[in-house]
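Training component of the fellowship. As part of building independent skills, the fellow (R.M.) carried out the full modelling exercise for a liganded target. The chosen ligand was coenzyme A. The inputs are recorded below so that the supervisory panel can assess the work.
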Amino acid sequence: MAYQTLLTSLEAGIFTITINRPDKLNALNMAVFAELNLAFDEVNTNESIKSVIITGTGEKAFVAGADISEFSKFSKQEAMKLSADGQATFFRIENCPKPVVAAVNGFALGGGCELAMSCHFRIASANAKFGQPEVNLGLIPGYGGTQRLVQLIGKGRAMELLMSAGMIDASTALQYGLVNYVVPAEELLAKAISILTVINSKAPLAIAACIESANAVFDETKNGYQVEVDAFGNSFDTADMKEGTTAFLEKRKAVFTGK
Ligand code: COA
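Fellow's submitted model of the complex:
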């Protein structure tokens, strides 16, 4: 499908979504949000897509935030809708049954940091910078940033970043556990692809169950241990579980079908 604000490509089961507004440092306007939803419709329905990379065009920015130019005339009600709709999009990413990795290629500020945090894990280029600078604008993060930043780096560090509007560099993000790896910019996509190539060789329903169970830790409406019991049991009804255990016992490599 052709998008106006995204570039997409599908290679060897890996669907790469590139936010493509380089003249605005890939800021998230409403068109980007609408197209991210369409792209995740595609992710959910296209069986050839096994996993997803989200990145930004260019070497300067992953995403420099929500598009501030859309904010100035909003009423309180419109702002609340923007926040709820943005959160809903990022919940879709977080709960996507296929692995979603952020390849952070520069500034990940405001909504950009929030987008990266909604992905299942993050890889950063050495020039990446992370922050929630909303208090500079008299705002706070609206797309789940206050929640996920605390989850990922702990309350004290998150509080400082949120209140100071400070930016951290890639090595600090690594030290904080916000990103799993820091690599030279030219190796960023290759690193994401090499990790996803390994993940794509595993049983897809088991991968989806890992995502669901790990996300349940942060969902107060769920008992994560019970989610795990159910998912563990369900895996015994899958052809892939039979194939995986049989292949191990027969000392051969399993061939998973996602069934
Ligand atoms: N929304 C809308 N436009 C944005 C944007 C955003 N969040 N971030 C950058 N842009 C635009 C700039 O307005 C500029 O557009 P112009 O060339 O038409 O004037 C263009 O992107 C380049 O940005 P610029 O500020 O000139 O680049 P820089 O290298 O001097 O600074 C940043 C880079 C990231 C430090 C700076 O752009 C910035 O602070 N952006 C806003 C970050 C933010 O507050 N995000 C949270 C939003 S809620």
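The panel noted the following from the submitted structure. Strands lie at 6-11, 14-19, 51-56, 61-63, 100-104, 107-109, 121-125, 129-131, 167-169, 181-183. The mean pLDDT is 97.
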